[in-house]
Amino acid sequence: MDNVSSNSSSPRAGRPRSERTRHAILDAATDLALEGGRVPTIDAVASRAGVSRTTIYKWWPSSAAVLAEGLLDRFHESIEFDDALPVREALTLQVDALVTLLRDTPAGQLVRQLLAAAASDRALGLAMLERWLEPRRATAAHHLERGVQQGGVRADVDTTLVVDALFAPVYHRLVWGHAPLDDNLARQVCDLVWPAVAAPTTAPTAAS
Amino acid sequence: MDNVSSNSSSPRAGRPRSERTRHAILDAATDLALEGGRVPTIDAVASRAGVSRTTIYKWWPSSAAVLAEGLLDRFHESIEFDDALPVREALTLQVDALVTLLRDTPAGQLVRQLLAAAASDRALGLAMLERWLEPRRATAAHHLERGVQQGGVRADVDTTLVVDALFAPVYHRLVWGHAPLDDNLARQVCDLVWPAVAAPTTAPTAAS
Lengths: 208, 208
What we know:
Two copies of one chain form a homodimer.
Chain A: H1 15-36, H2 42-49, H3 53-59, H4 63-74, H5 87-104, H6 107-118, H7 122-150, H8 159-176, H9 185-197
């Protein structure tokens, strides 16, 4: 549950205090969003955090950008899984954690609203990518690479494509709403992808 | 290239004229959107189509809803494929047509903007589902069912899940922008999904 601060390795004068302020702003934006189910205004975030608008704009271009970062910090534990788990199980649990997060908490509608806002706000889109999607993709890619090293996953696996195949159906159902985020979705998606991902276990009849 | 009108089987007094008006409105919204790269206003659509706002609101709740329907009609040919094609090839071509449409025409950014607007407009979301996504899903499901009948696709295929797996990565890349809509994407996605979809061709060693 340790939050990983990207600034923790660059001590500077005043850092502890500004770090406290940053976290107060992130917490305020996230709490307001989870309570209200929508992206809060800058004024509401400033008021809740006890800072000025200027302080917020020093670090972020919009309240949506604050929220994108705050949501990641808040739900960071949902992308941390033990390397002791078999790769397929670790990936299934990761997809299932996303399903549960998007279905059972306000994070689902917040992510949907942030994605919608990102369609006309390039900086927010980049923040969402950097703070929300890429860390989750990196965790999944880590497990796939672990599988390659351990021999259970094909050495020529297309990591970008497989990570898309694992997570895209979850976001697709969130955004379009054509089918529910079922309890079984994560396992079904992993079962569907796995035959193409697993290293061949039979005798090598057709090498290359 | 025939547009299929869902009303063509219910003749009523005045239908031909109102049909012409409907099509003029759909064409106006679609032309304006493709020229401008964004959802047009109701006033712009009314002006281009030579009708009143009231006439448009008689049939649609918003210009976005008009556009959702107009875009489907305009790009309807991208979901029509010959049943003479092998199932896997028909599905690959369908995904590839979507990749090309979303990448190489303004339809991509329009779909992204309509999806964004749908996050806070339930009627639009339903129109997008009904007019854009479901007809494409139905075509893909048709090919999968054809494959079951012909024996190339597993009889227990989860059609909803497989259709998600085929199309979700395309929309995922459109919405998040984390990876490009490559020329190879459609084939890669189909190759990834196919081992889990194909009916077993080996001797039945473990039935059921």
